[in-house]
Amino acid sequence: MKRGFTLIEMLVVMGIIVALMAACLVGYRKMLVMAEKTKCRELVSNAATALAALYTDSGAWPRSLRNANTAGGAKILDGKAAYALASRGFLSLEVSSESAKSGKTAGLDKFGLITPTAAKVVKRLGNSATLSSMVTSGSTIEDHILRFAIDLDGDGVIEDVNVGGETLAVRANAVVWCCGKDGKILPFHEGVRSDDVHSWTEGQIVK
Fold this sequence. Notes:
The chain is built from six helices and nine strands. The chain is of the alpha+beta class. The strands form three sheets. It has a five-stranded antiparallel sheet, covered by helices on one side. The protein has a two-stranded antiparallel sheet with strand order 3-4. It has a two-stranded antiparallel ribbon with strand order 6-7. A hairpin with a 2-residue loop joins β1 and β2.
């Protein structure tokens, strides 16, 4: 005679299944966070490489980069600044014939170079997306635009790189950085331990 499962046995099995599902969910969320940070690193690295290549190719910084708009004391790679890279083929960004007249990027790239977190919001909202559209609690698309600094005097060191209120001098001809999912750019040494992404390392900082 076959014996069925008791209530206690069923509850134990269900408990194990729930525990396994919870562990899988936590692992999946961690994987998503890591994947998004990897995308951020690639974007920041590609932007820094594109800036350096632009300078090497032309021997000078375009006016749109030298006089770029700022936020929080740092230049931003908004639609106008990003156009300098897109129009010369150093970055693949959307540009329409209409936006080219005003020297700006277009479509999903109309805000310039933004973090993957903000890009999802722009894709979802489409034409209704604005700089003040919310990305996460307390942060907007404007907060997620990549920051940059360039070596204007050609000495191989960028002075006065303002990262979250911390001023650095970095050995490079172009650097790029961005906030993490929270939309906050922290001082460099705090941001490294958090989720901010930078194109330079500690070894490039001039003490």
